[in-house]
Structures are given as structure tokens and as C-alpha cells.
Amino acid sequence: MKASNPLWKDRLQHQIPPDLGSEIDIFEHEVQLRKQGKIDEKVFAETRLRRGAYGQRYDNGHRHDGVTERTLTYPATEATKGPNTLWDAPGMQRIKIPYGGLDAVQLERLAEVAEEYSDGIAHITTRQDFQLHFVHIEDTPPLMRRLAAVGITTREACGNSVRNVTACPVAGVCRTQTFDVTPYAKALTYFLLGHPDCQDFGRKFKIAFSGCRDEACGLVRMHDLGAVAVTREHNGTTERGFELYVGGGLGTVPQQARLFSEFLPEAELPPIAQAIARVFARLGEKKNRNTARIKFLVSKLGLDEFKRLVMEERGSLPHDDRWTAFLADVPNYQEEPLKPPSLLQLGPEAPEGFAEWRRTNVYEQRQTGYVTITVALPLGDITSTQLRQLANIARKYVKETIRTTVEQNIVLRWVSEGDLVDLFNDLKAAHLAQPGAGTILDITACPGTDTCKLGISSSRGLAAELRERLAATAYEMDEAVRGLHIKVSGCFNSCGQHHACDLGFYGVSRNKGGYTVPHFQVLLGGQWQNNAGSYGLAIGAVPSKRIPETVERITSRYLEGKSNGESFHAWTRRIGKAACKAMIEDLTSIPSHDENPDFYIDWADARKYTIGDIGVGECAGEVVSPIDFQLAACERKAFEAQLALEKGEVEVAARTAYESMLEGAQALVGLRETAPSDPDEVVAGFRKHFFDTQLFYDPFAGPKFAQYFLKAHERRNQTISADRAHQLIEEAQLFIEASHSCHTRMSAQAAKAQPVS
């Protein structure tokens, strides 16, 4: 029976928490008002985003795998019709899973709603959430009720809010943890959920918990607020607390979080988080979304002043019993196993594939006789049928102790080790026994061009291709390569976390002979360990179809050149950026369309990735415009800035990064007038022809990339830190990418304006 049936709604009411039920009722009413054109779309957009409902990308009304949108059962009004509204095609529903914790009933409910309202596939995100695609906006209220009835909310899964609080998926069973962060993550989630002090942010706010400092765990250093479990001795007793970080974030220009407190007592976690939220809401940017994350506020104020304001706010907060109420339950919080501990007894012949699966997907818990197993999900996808099968497996082997991971997988905790063979066989029957968890095969990817409106290149298509190729040689693979992490984003926004890994890629494009060619920028130097200890920088844009060869080239050189025990991160730092770039220099070339048309089609997509024929000449050689050479020179200059930063020449790095943007702007201005040489005149020409006219305006990033250049020009004579120089290099690369896109759009417009002969 469909949940939209009023009888079903009435039957659920007694199971739904009253506050959630009331909110869903209000949202359903707003959906109807929006349908009637009685609520402005901008107002409704913020409302639906706070309920986790997004729009998604369509290409001629069809998903790449052939799934089409559902037929509307009502006419669109003047206020709602149009190709980009939620009324013309289904969208995406994000579902909040605090710290990734689930039980079997919840898995089954997710299976039901995925099957009834979506395409039967649930997708796990890099924030331990679930996403359903192709969900009609009118189906979202009943879908939310179905989830709320089993304790799942979609509230603040999106929008300018506190997003899903993530935590280490092995917290509580981890061998190296300081203590279990689970109850703290849970307490902070529900303390801040719907809190009035968290409703006036300019952008999203992300929180993570880690039980260890040195492992990847919660990746706290790339979060707005990150907490690492620590203890201290005081008056003969051991006190729990947190090493607290603020102001981290990925996005277009990533920043690492800064240490706010070496030891924050556990009781102070909720009030300090509330005080930080209040300062962010009061002083954070509201008009310009490009600088509205808390990392920009911390940078603007300076850490000391930000901390002073937070502590001042903390001192003025009225007491709230909820700050410490959860502490009474912390000593009693403990997951329980379903079965007693046991040791694995292997017979003479283990099931086919068991040894490799055990090697990569089984983690020995701190509790002897128990293990945590990872269900590896390629691309983070799991079907409704598999969700039901996994729910049954969880009931059979564990006490429904299930968690999602930021690597887009699922783990089952407290498996009695002696059950491993039987568990493996059951997973294999459900097609859920893929090996390779936590290895180079376990590739993270955002939705990319499949469903995301911001996607430039097919991140999921590339990830699937890489996984297939790497899996073919997995058994012969050197352990040093096997342990690497690959992450792929479809654009510069880092939803695939491409900055924080060994090999990162993000989608860009280039123009060749009137065709747009899918590319990926290659990033090296990032670090997954140490809670995202460092971020990578781009070393060059490679055609999408050459990325598998790029991975093979880089990993082979690593094996040839590394010293004993040298990590990939250490190796890239030792050989330097110039050597890294030289490794892939020849792979950046693009064959002509006639020579190899396959380069002009993205992975897992039969359509031409092209802006169409904009006037390809029939002469023997291809004419390359001067601006193509100029923008290539800008890319080289931006890379020179990386080399200078690598040498510790901070001022040189900053100046060179600025100059790369200046020369890119100069090249564009030269398309409209005689290009000036004076920097102020270049800026004036850029403003006149590109910024004020919005010709440089990115469809999704707005004026952000142009502002990077304009601000760099204003601050070109200021003293700069190494961190700021790193950011400036990132900004320069993005400005140059935007210059390529701007030139491509101009070329396309010029071609359309040509008279047909």
C-alpha cells in the first residue's frame, strides 16, 4: 500500500515522534501551496532543502541507464512549469543517518521506500547518509513519514544547517581508540537538530568525531567542527575530553581545521558547539554564498579572536539541562553481541574468494573473538533486495549493529569470528561479498554527471572503470599500491573528497577543434591518514579516457622509485611536484576528433560530450587560437607557484599564482580589445567585459572564480602565510579552469551567430 494513502498515514501517526510528525505535516502543506504557486520558489527551496529534498540532473528526461522520470498526474501551473523545476521531473531525497548507525528494521524500511518511491537503489554518501534518486516531490512527505516511523529523519540533511554528524564506523570496537565517541556523536546530533541557534547559517555546517588522532577515522581536520577523543589525568582520575578543531572544509578551495582546544571537557562539548553556532550565525557571511562557510569567518577574524568571541558567547548562554543529561548514559552505553566470542576454524577447503575477502574486509576488534566486517559497495549503491537480505544477515549474526561509512560502505560489528565462513557464504548469495574494502579498489565517487547538476565529468563512470581494471590485477598487486586511496569528484566542489587521498581526480573540460573534451584534474599530495592530514594540489588536466593509464603510470613509478617502507605521500613529497607533473605530461595531449572520437565521449555515457561542431576547418593542420596557448601558459605558471611553495618560497608562490590569474584575465580581455599590460588596466578591462557583463559568470559557482582574481589583485602586496599561498594556488587553478570554460562558451556563441551558407 502506498504511504500516500490516508489510511497508511493514520496507521503511522502513533509511531512517529510528535515533533517530526508535525514538521512533516507542515512540509506537506507547503508542497501543495508551492504546487498552486502560492509560495515563492526561493522560499520553498530552502524549506525543501532543510527536509533533504534536492533537484537533480536530467538529460532529455532520461537517466543514463535508461530509467525515465515518472509521469506527472497534474498540470503544472505558470508558477511551477519549466524544464528545471521539481514539478517536471523527480529529484533526490537525502536521508540522515547520525554517525551511520542503523538496525535491521531501518534497513528494511529504506528498502521499501527505495522500491516504492525511487528506482530500487539506495546510495550511501560520503557523510554516512543514504540518498534516493528519481523521487517525485509530491512523494516526499509520505516517504518522510515512513522513515520517521522507524526513527529516521531527513531534517537538515541538506540546506544551510548542521549536516549529518559523522563518526568512525568502528568506534567502540577499535583497537587504537582512546574511547568510544558514539554516544557523544549521538548526543550532539540530537542536541543541535532543529536547535533555534542553528537556523540562521549562511551555509552548511559539518561535524565529525574520531576516536584516534593518527588514523583516518572521522577525517576531523576537513570539517567545520571536528572532535578527537583524548584523556588527561587530573587529581588521580582519568578525565575524558576532546581535541577540538574548527574551520576546516573542502569545497573549491579547501582549508584544514585549526586547533581550537587541546582538551575540551566532555561536558563542555554541547555548550561550546552551541556557542560556535551562535557566533557563526551572527557574524558569518550571508549574502555571498562563496564565502559563507565558517572557515572563511575563522580566517577573517583570526583563530584567537574567533575563540575569544566563542568563549564570550559561552559565558552568556543560559543553562540548558541537555548539556549534561546525556553524560549519565555514557558509562552505560555499550553495544552487545548476539553470540559468544569464538575463533575461526577453517576446514581443508575454504570457500572460493574467502581468503581475499577476509584479508581486506575483516577487522579484528579490541574484544577478543569478535570482528567487524565491511560490506563493500561499488559506487556506494545497494538494491532494495540486498538491503532486505542484509537486514536478515544482521539479525542472524549480530544484534543488528550496523553502520554506514564515509567510504560509502556498510559494516556489521560484533560478528563472532567463528561465524565468518557462514557469513561470507550468505553475503555471497546476496552478491554482497566483494573484496577490496579499504584498498585501492574501494574508490569513492560523487554522483557526477549521472544526476548532479554541477557535474562536469562522469565521476561514477570513471570510478567503475578504474575498479574493474584494478580488480583484474588485484591478486598480483604490490601491498604498497593496494593500500592507496582513490577519490573522484565530477567537478571542483570535492563532494568525492578528492583533496584528501593519495590519488584524487575532479572533473574539468577542455576544447579541441570545436568539441568539448571531458577531462579530470589529477591531484597528488593528499593524505587520508591523520584525519585528513594534508590536501593534494592539481598537477595537470588529463583527458578522461587517459585516467586509467595515468593511475597505472603513477603507481608503477611509485613502486620503482620508493625506498623501503616509504609511503606514497612521502614519496610524492620527496620527488617533488615537478617530477610528478613530468610523469603525466605526455598524457595531457588530446587527439583530434577524426583521429580518436572515443576521447570525446565520457565513461559510461554513450552521448557525445560536445558543444557541437563549431566550425572545424578542412585544412591539413588544426588552427590553434592564441588564447589556447596563453591559457596553457597560465596553467604552467600556476604550477610554478606550487613548485615555489614546495621550496618554502611563500612570497614567490603567492606572487606567481596571482600572475597566472592576471595573465589569464589579460588573455580574455585581448578577445575584446587590445590587451593592456598594466595590471590595473587588465582588471578594469576584465571588469568591463567579463565581470560586469556576467560573461565570466559560472552557471553554478556564480561570480566566485572571478572574485578570486579581483581579490588577489587587491591584496597582491600584502604579506601572506603558507596556508594562504596554498589557497591562492587553488584559486588560481580554478580561475584558469573558469577561463577555459568562458572561452568555450564564447566560441559556441560565436559559432551560433555565424550565418548559414
Notes on the structure:
The protein has 757 residues and is an alpha+beta fold. Among the domains are: 6-98 and 117-148, no CATH class; 181-332, Sulfite Reductase Hemoprotein, domain 1 (2-Layer Sandwich), CATH 3.30.413.10; 354-429, Alpha-Beta Plaits, CATH 3.30.70.3340; 627-757, Nucleotidyltransferases  domain 2 (Four Helix Bundle (Hemerythrin (Met), subunit A)). The chain is 39% helix and 14% strand. Strands 1-2-5-4-13 form a 5-stranded antiparallel beta sheet. Strands 3-14-15-12-11 form a 5-stranded antiparallel beta sheet. A hairpin with a 2-residue loop joins β8 and β9 (237-246). α4 (104-117) packs antiparallel against α5, α19 (626-646) packs antiparallel against α20 and α20 packs parallel to α23 (722-753). It starts with 5 loop residues before the first helix and ends with a helix. Residues 1-11, 60-84 and 610-624 have low confidence and may be disordered.
Alpha-beta content class: alpha+beta
CATH-derived architecture of the domain at 181-332: 2-Layer Sandwich
Strand percent estimate: 5-15%
Count of DSSP strands: 20
Calculate the terminal CA-CA distance, rounded to whole Å.
60 Å
Overall mean pLDDT score? 87
Largest sheet: 5 strands, antiparallel
